[in-house]
Structures are given as C-alpha cells and as structure tokens.
Amino acid sequence: MSSSISFFIIFSLILFSPFSNGVFHEEISDILAINLRSQKTSHLHFYFHDILSGKKPSAIKIISPGGGGIYDFGNTFICDDALTIGPNASTEVIGRAQGIYSIASQGELALLMAMNFEFTQGKYNGSSISILGRNPFMKDVREMPIVGGTGLFRFARGYTLAHTFWFDVKTGDAIVEYNVFVQHY
Q1: List of residues 6+ apart from 172 with CB closer than 8 A
Q2: Distance set, CA 59 to CA 22, 52, 55, 103, 167 (Å)
Q3: What are the tens digits of pLDDT across the range 48-97?
Q4: Residues 47, 175 contacting (CB under 8 angstroms)
C-alpha cells in the first residue's frame, strides 16, 4: 500500500471518528491562534506571610511522621497565608496563598510546594496562579514553576523567584518576597 493511501486512510479515520468533530477542533484551534497573538507577560511583586506560631497561625502542621521537630522529613503543612504589598503585615493585603507544603528532602531543607496564589485586589481580583515545585528554602533565591491559573491567568505559565525576607528558625515563621513572571492571555 502506498504512503499516500495510508495517509488518506488514517486521516479519514481521524476525521470521521465518533470522537472527533472537525468543527470542534477547528474552533479550538482558532481560539488558541487568537489567544497566542494576545499573550502577555506580567511581573508581580508581593510578600508571603507564613506564620506557624501564636494564637492564630496562618499555617499548621497536618502530618508529622515522627519526631517533634518542625524541620523533620515528611512534615506537611497546610496554609492560608496573606499576600501583601510590602514586607510589613500591616501593608495592604492583595491576596492569599493557599495550599500545602512538605519537607520533601532528606539531604537538605527543601519543600515540595503545591500552592495557589489567589488575588483579591486590583486588576487581578478573582484570578489565581498555581505553583508546583521544589523550594530549598535555606537558599537565598529559589525558582519555582507556575503550572496554571484561573481568571486573567487562565493558561498561565512562568516562574516565581522567592527570597526569604525574614525567618525565625525557632518557630518557622517567615516572610518571603516573591517576584512572579507569568505569561497569560
């Protein structure tokens, strides 16, 4: 059988398959082509307040596989942390960091972070970005990937640069500066 006949048979099976509708695929392709032309990159700058101590912590330990230390391998935390314009907790809150993080390395202090940054103020109110990645939090600057988003950040991709602004080694409380570079439509 010649290659042109094989191509025609395969093309016909795809085109006339009950799972395929040429119009449906065309419509999506057209929308994506329009969106690709309007893609932009935004730079966001804010501070993340992760507080484990006190009467009203914003992060709590939910899994502790052994030992009582805060930095033990496997410890897992859930958080609902404020995102602010400045490093002081009294500056304007622009959103919340909601998700989980775990001590995921036996060799160094590194977190596995699965986090949504939900924005509640300004242009991005109601939109969010999702981060999933490794955070070796004792390093000066850490890079983590943006794997998606909602609202104005639908189809988002990019990266975050995290820098610890303040850290209390006894309690685990931290203020982290984030520079976010996100591509979206």
Answers
A1: 50, 52, 53, 70, 71
A2: 49, 5, 11, 14, 14
A3: 999 999 999 999 999 999 877 899 999 999 999 999 999 999 999 999 99
A4: yes
Is the model more confident about 20 or about 158? 158
Q: What is the pLDDT of residue 23?
A: 47
* Calpha distance 114→153 (Å, rounded): 17
pTM: 0.81
Minimal CA–CA distance to 177: which of 168, 164, 159, 158? Answer: 164
Q: Please calculate the CA angle 145-146-150 and round it to the nearest 5 degrees.
A: 170
Facing residues of 169 across strands? none
CA–CA separation, 68 vs 135, rounded Å? 22
115-134 confidence digits (pLDDT tens): 999 999 999 999 999 999 99
Q: What is the pLDDT of residue 47?
A: 98
Half-sphere exposure of 130 (CA within 13 A, CB side): 10
Angle subtended at Cα 145 by Cα 148 and Cα 87, rounded to the nearest 5 degrees? 100
AA letter at 12: S
